[in-house]
Amino acid sequence: MAATTMRATAAGAVLLLALLLVSTNVGRAEDPYVFFEWHVTYGTKSLLGVPQKVILINGEFPGPRINCSSNNNIVVNVFNQLDQPLLFTWNGIQHRKNSWQDGMPGTNCPVVPGTNYTFKWQAKDQIGSFFYFPSIGMQRTVGGYGLISVVSRLLIPVPFDPPADDLQVLIGDWYNKDHTVMASLLDAGKSPGRPAGVLINGRGGKDAANPPMFTFEAGKTYRLRICNVGIKASLNFRIQGHDMRLVEMDGSHTVQDSFDSLDVHVGHCLSVLVDADQKPADYLMVASTRFMVEPSSASAVIRYAGSNTPPAPNVPEPPAGWAWSLNQWRSFRWNLTASAARPNPQGSYHYGQINITRTIKLMVTRGHLEGKLKYGFNGVSHVDADTPLKLAEYFNVSDKVFKYNQMGDSPPGVNGPMHVAPNVITAEFRTFIEVVFENPEKSMDSLHIDGYAFFAVGMGPGKWSPDLRKTYNLLDAVSRHTIQVYPRSWSAVMLTFDNAGMWNVRSNLWERHYLGEQLYISVISPARSLRDEYNMPETNLRCGKVVGLPLPPSYLPA
Ligand SMILES: *[C@@H]1O[C@H](CO)[C@@H](O)[C@H](O)[C@H]1NC(C)=O
Ligand SMILES: *[C@@H]1O[C@H](CO)[C@@H](O)[C@H](O)[C@H]1NC(C)=O
Ligand SMILES: *[C@@H]1O[C@H](CO)[C@@H](O)[C@H](O)[C@H]1NC(C)=O
Ligand SMILES: *[C@@H]1O[C@H](CO)[C@@H](O)[C@H](O)[C@H]1NC(C)=O
Ligand SMILES: *[C@@H]1O[C@H](CO)[C@@H](O)[C@H](O)[C@H]1NC(C)=O
């Protein structure tokens, strides 16, 4: 058995990559570890012409990119040098058997200022593009986010040739307000208003266009990993004079259709291949807000190596209306013959033939409580408890913290009064469930489920009804973790609840999330076995009602 250690230092970040190389006759090697040390601080940046306080990781904005391969173990030692509690969540990483690392206020105690805490998670059987962000309060509106890129292991076929480079494109709306100001506006029942602009990789306004963001060599092909890391606006992304070949979406290889522009909704990630097949020159890539009264956009420059021809003045027009967007979504297909993280074809799982055991219909509800605006599902507006829900459950003190299943599987007939509580529902382990989201609001929504990938089988205008199931794509819907819901529309997903843990279901629209449009699904394996769920790591932080309690009986090997 041989072990090699490589050390690299980039922009103050220390990345230690330890590869355990074990000869094949020893049997299964432990999966490699990738180590990060993150110092999280405030800094001042003028992103849209106004100096403001932002969240930096190792001095970087956006935060450092996490590059890894399927099944790598990721270890992130987080030093909280803010003046507020901090947690990171890893959007789209499934944490098989391990909601202990999900980094939401319902699963983890916050890292208090002046201390450090180490997250350890595995990109188990996953490939694709994801991102992380700070999950407490409105912190993510001022940064602290970054790309997670999971490449296939060696020898696992990838359904396209290796690109010349693999580039991050983090796009999002931006507000010139401090995150504490955003939170207190929402606490006071006020809206933080429209975004001040759009950022591409942390650059906005004139700064986005100069200097060029990427250099292309003519004749080569580039992979762009595009994530909408904003909090409210759906964005349309396009590149002057270039088509984009869609190859991956939220961790699944797609049928490789070409698009001249793509809608990227809040919390979504996708990968496109771009051929540098045009006349050498500068070209603009544009991210512009969709469905907003006062649109805004950002443009960054892709320069062909050696070019001194400025970009053409005509910026491609964005598409209009949301029917275009819905039709584009309908055209997305899973590539049923491509490998994913494992060598078998990813689509060999015939989800369309499994019987649904339960339908959970989640209608977005908005209301006022004591004069304050609240959002929720089915009349229940979630509020975090002083003890993370997962810990309360594990230590068997949940009755002191929350009540299960306060919310029904379908919305109450009329909009009754909003009920504010920790919103926790249970799902039976390994059952196949249909979840329907209904958004009666005039604005877009985008919903995410932690711990899982789901089949995004259908969406449409108006209210959902069971006969709309005949419109579902039961063959090659993309398996993903986030789905948009258009105004006054529904979206339906299907998934098997086979990942034991406590999982956040949330609106990615962070005002709605903050005001209660989220819940947790508790999935418990009756076997209490390590086959199904890990024990809480002894290093996990304790807070609230579980401080000083003895550890409960461990889950045992199967
Ligand atoms: C804090 O950082 C130190 C130094 O890197 C490390 O040894 C320790 O394990 C970390 N503590 C936690 C709780 O992660
Ligand atoms: C799907 O993946 C296979 C296997 O890599 C590839 O040969 C094929 O071109 C892909 N199909 C489409 C339509 O993208
Ligand atoms: C991540 O991988 C990409 C593509 O190989 C590379 O360009 C980039 O420098 C890497 N970033 C880090 C921080 O390792
Ligand atoms: C699904 O339900 C149908 C009708 O109730 C039944 O005939 C069929 O056997 C079920 N399929 C499976 C795989 O359980
Ligand atoms: C959990 O607590 C309840 C009382 O709150 C008790 O009846 C039950 O036996 C406890 N279960 C375990 C596994 O300790």
Structural notes for this entry:
- With 558 residues, the chain is mostly beta strands.
- It folds into three domains: 27-151, Cupredoxins -  blue copper proteins (Immunoglobulin-like, Sandwich), CATH 2.60.40; 165-331, Immunoglobulin-like (Sandwich), CATH 2.60.40.420; 350-538, Cupredoxins -  blue copper proteins (Immunoglobulin-like, Sandwich), CATH 2.60.40.420.
- It contains four helices and 35 strands.
- It has helices at 179-187, 322-331, 389-394, 510-514, and strands spanning 2-10, 13-21, 33-46, 51-57, 66-69, 73-80, 88-91, 116-122, 128-134, 146-151, 165-174, 197-200, 214-216, 221-228, 235-239, 244-249, 252-253, 258-259, 261-264, 269-275, 282-289, 297-304, 358-369, 372-377, 380-382, 419-421, 424-428, 432-439, 445-449, 454-461, 479-480, 482-485, 489-496, 501-507, 518-524.
- The strands form seven sheets. Strands 11, 12, 14, 16, 17, 18 and 20 form a seven-stranded mixed β-sheet that branches. Strands 1, 2, 3, 4, 6 and 8 form a six-stranded mixed β-sheet that branches.
- The radius of gyration is 23 Å and the shape is globular.
- One 2-acetamido-2-deoxy-beta-D-glucopyranose binds next to strand 8.
